[in-house]
Write a structure and sequence with these properties.
The structure is a homodimer of 405-residue chains. The first copy, chain A, is α/β, with parallel strands linked by helices and 405 residues long. Chain A is built from 13 helices and 20 strands. In chain A, helix 1 (16-31) packs across helix 4 (72-87), helix 6 packs parallel to helix 8 (213-222) and helix 12 (355-365) crosses helix 13. The interface between A and B is medium-sized, with 35 and 35 residues.
Chain lengths: 405, 405
């Protein structure tokens, strides 16, 4: 007997039949003797509709009222799921954020969870009742509904699992696990039985959008074991766990790619101390996240500074830099949006040598030019021409021995 | 400067344009120097959708979960209306039942309001803020969302007006006031400037469905002046007030009709004490509301008992009476669903003689047979053949001098 949190995303509760399906899955765990708490998202499409209404009435709408409006989507699903469970003979009760309470800070629209009062829910679970918690929402210090930001229901579920001392947090979604890479590109992509929190974070932040990044960070911090699995298929999912729980560590766990980035080069800037701060300070102030950065060896007291940033921010970044051009003194800005970032990720890199070298050699063999390189303890990323994305990912997947048999 | 509660029904907030229209109307009152609180219903159609979902998942759904689900409709409108007001430069804040709090009893799905904590709302109104309250909902003793039953937003508004010591409760709806009778039947129907609570109650309960009956009862009890007016036209509405506020009392304020009734006659029952209880007891136990009752003069120790009941309850009533037939001993049941109840209503009847006689004479002149008669202090009702409904209402409207010039 275990205590489990089961979380169902928007596509898993998109209509009444799917809600019935969710109830049947929950009942199966209850019948197996487990104590279960459920977290639900809004029915697919509902949140977008509510957000669009707020936007339409006022582009700069009050975040407190936005929260009051959009949090209703999850409340509907929580109530309906409780009814569906009761119909199957499972004792159930819905919970909104303020009822638990799930306490957050006051950052409306993107609140962070401060604390969850788990005692009453634990008491009820022990008495055989299934709490059905509206995800994505809490209550702020101002006694008003807060929301956690898009995808926040994953974070709700992980935080709840921590507060309830659950053995596992099962995230039901429309994919059946975490893959070594995108199966749409690599037919031989393999589902991972286990993946370390750190690997998941790197894969998520570079484009494998299965779990909200914050939820993985929280799971890592609170040591919550997270399972990603399909709400439609009956196959085992992938466990996101501490790397100590992974016995056979491959050098590379997976390969991620992102075509959402752009490359910007600041040509011929004075090569003097403080020049990086002069460039990246104004960008940070404008809320633009810069990722890979390389600075060329200087000559004639001048150098080139190249970095990547979200493609959508490119026009804004050019504007910011044009604004400080006089102060910095650079020759020109070269932008290239036609790039892709390819990353190989694995905690095993710490103990396996030559991972980066395998990457460079493999890409060279395919004639793919590397524009920028960046590395971390468990990741090697390269920037290449966007047209080579699929070719590169496939070649690397084979080179690291990830192909399914 | 006055303090006003403005309530907007589902058709008045049916889409974003109408919500903007509501905000503009509220702003006008605020600009005129009034302190305003707003009560809103769910957008037209939303509550029906939510109810249908609950029904579909479980015909005998838990009322607590039903309440959690259906209360969201008003929360959405409250938040959106607050945003629309802010966009017009009006300071506004949405309030759900649990936030005020609006405390109800624990009768989920049809809760009654116990108490409203008005102090914080009054403080904010005095500081220039407009509270936008989600109608139809409150919080029960079990710390769970309750709803007041269909049409409950009218009751929310009246109760709020009482708690805030408001000078008036304006109910904005899709009609522009209370009429002497149904304008679809009588082209010369007149809008009433003022109508007494008691008259409104009688007109509402016999078919003039503008205000929820409970809201009028509450307004009468709490002496809240209610104005019914159109949210689309810019015409003055009708005031529902204490009869002392009506200076020129006409004998008859209005004429109502209902085709939702049926007549049932229990033929040849023993004419002995306790026979009425033997018939109406089982009907009451089955939740069937009986209205007009007449008992004929008996002969041979037998009598006939005739009464009206909601047409929809006719099959059930027959079943109930067939079940107790052996115990009571009657010859047969005669049912007639082809009837209409016509009522003339007016507090002026108390001081004007001959109102009933005018009714009987008028109907006789048109050759309309009266099947059953019942009277109260401010109402005379007759049951006639359904086919005569329009003819009777028009003739009476003229006979009582109600026709517009």
């Amino acid at each position: 007997m275990a205590r489990i949190v089961m979380k169902f995303g928007g596509t898993s509760v998109a209509d009444l039949d799917r809600i019935r399906n969710v109830a049947a899955r929950v009942k199966r765990e209850v019948d197996a003797g487990h104590e279960v708490a459920v977290v639900v998202s809004a029915m697919a499409g509902v949140t977008n509709q509510l957000v669009a209404w707020c936007q339409s009435l006022s582009p700069l709408h009050d975040a407190r009222e936005y929260d009051a409006v959009v949090a209703t989507g999850e409340q509907v699903t929580a109530g309906l799921t409780a009814i569906a469970l009761q119909e199957l003979g499972v004792e159930a009760r819905s919970w909104q954020g303020w009822q638990i309470p799930l306490l957050t800070d006051g950052a409306h629209g993107k609140a962070r969870i401060d604390r969850i009062e788990g005692a009453e829910l634990i008491r009820r679970m022990q008495a055989g009742q299934v709490p059905v918690v509206a995800g994505f929402q809490g209550i702020g210090p101002d006694h008003r509904v807060t929301t956690l930001g898009r995808g926040g229901s994953d974070t709700s579920a992980v935080a709840l699992a921590a507060a309830l001392h659950a053995e596992r947090c099962d995230i039901y979604t429309d994919v059946d696990g975490i893959y070594t890479t995108d199966p749409r590109i690599v037919a031989k992509a393999r589902k991972l039985d286990r993946i370390a929190y750190e690997e998941m974070l790197e894969l998520a932040s570079v484009g494998a959008k299965v779990l909200q990044t914050r939820s993985v960070e929280l799971a890592m911090k609170e040591r919550v074991r997270v399972q990603v699995l399909s709400s439609f298929a009956d196959t085992p999912g992938s466990l996101v766990v501490d790397e100590d729980e992974i016995v056979e560590k491959a050098a590379v766990a997976g390969i991620a790619y992102s075509r959402e980035e752009a490359k910007l080069t600041v040509r011929r800037v004075p090569d003097r101390p403080g020049i990086a701060a002069a460039i990246f300070g104004p960008l940070a102030a404008a809320g633009i996240n810069v990722d890979m950065i390389v600075q060329n060896i200087g000559a004639d007291g001048l150098t080139d500074m190249t970095f990547t940033l979200p493609r959508a921010d490119l026009p804004r970044a050019r504007k910011v830099l044009d604004g400080v051009r006089a102060g910095i003194g650079f020759a020109e800005l070269l932008a290239d949006a036609d790039v892709a970032k390819i990353s190989v990720v694995g905690v095993g890199m710490r103990s396996h040598a030559g991972v980066a070298n395998t990457m460079f050699r493999t890409l060279a063999e395919k004639g793919i030019n590397i524009q920028v390189i960046s590395t971390s303890e468990i990741k090697v990323s390269v920037l290449i021409g966007a047209e080579y994305t699929e070719l590169a990912v496939r070649a690397l997947h084979t080179a690291y021995g990830l192909d399914a048999a």
